[in-house]
TrEMBL record:
This is Transcriptional regulator. It comes from Candidatus Colimorpha enterica.
Length: 134
């Protein structure tokens, strides 16, 4: 699945203006490009025999996306401690859509994600000055 992650990261936004395109595009791209792989992976990793392998795999995913957030911080100007959970929301929404094509769930998650980013950007200067802003 590291190929999937590499493909995802290659499509990532280059700057803050590109974030909106990325959020709108990536769930549908993920479903089209990797939906079958996700369905197989979830069948395997939720089986009791392979559950511990799945936990190990997802610990690696968490680590890689957290590292990626540090790279993305420099491109879009949102601190990694804020962007990391937003990446996880986008990944969860994208994978859920790839598995079930649930447009309602997807749009609800993307809406929260976009509103959260917009709110952060509107308060960015103030938040960066505070020691414990959130």
């Amino acid at each position: 699945m590291s190929k999937v992650e590499d493909d995802f990261m290659a499509r990532a936004p280059a700057d803050i203006e590109d974030v909106w395109r990325f959020i709108d595009e990536i769930p549908y791209w993920t479903a089209k490009k990797h939906g079958k792989k996700y369905r197989l992976m979830y069948q395997v990793y939720t089986h009791p025999k392979y559950f511990s392998h799945g936990k190990d795999f997802f610990e690696g995913v968490n680590r890689r996306y957290s590292e990626y957030a540090a790279v993305l911080e420099g491109k879009i100007g949102i601190p990694k401690d804020i962007i990391t959970p937003l990446i996880f929301i986008l990944i969860r929404a994208s994978v859920h859509y790839a598995l079930f094509e649930d447009e309602f769930y997807l749009q609800a998650q993307l809406g929260v994600l976009k509103k959260g980013i917009a709110l952060y950007l509107s308060q960015k200067d103030r938040l960066l000055k505070e020691e414990k802003p959130l």
